[in-house]
Amino acid sequence: MINRRKLVQSAPFAALAAGAVIQTETPDPHASWIAEHKALIQRMYAPDTPDVEMSNPDWIRSQELEELISVTPAKTPKGAAAQLEFALSEEANFDLIGGIFKDLDAQALRNVLTTLQSLA
Fold it and tell me: Which helix (H) or strand (E) element contains residue 53?
């Protein structure tokens, strides 16, 4: 007769022995990209800083980060929340209005953000 307790206790080891791959949820890179972008923006637009040239390495990197943040699909609620929060931020110059009745576009997206943040 099979002892269920021993079977359940040995299941993880049996899976490893059979070559099963244990998947761990890897964090989305969006939050770190956003932090880097924010630091670049603060440095480029600090008081008494000369106008930023488009050839400035910080400017080029900030543009690369904006693209990465925007086009890389998030795989977790935390990553999606970071991505949406960035899209709604002042750094991204968010100004979406007019598509939804009473210009509630931004409010609808902020509600989605709140939900994603509660899941993260």
Answer: none
Q: In sequence order, which ranges of 45-76 are alpha helices (DSSP H)?
A: 57-71
Give the span between the Cα atoms of 80 and 74, in whole angstroms. Answer: 5
Q: How far apart are CA 19 and CA 37, in angstroms?
A: 40
- Could you tell me the two tokens for 48? 């008494």
CB 31 within 8 A of CB 78: yes
The pTM (predicted TM-score) of the whole model is 0.67
Tens digits of residue pLDDT in 46-65: 998 888 888 899 999 999 99
CA distances from 54 to 62, 72, 77 (A): 11, 24, 34
Q: Who's near 45: CB < 8 A, 6+ residues apart?
A: 52
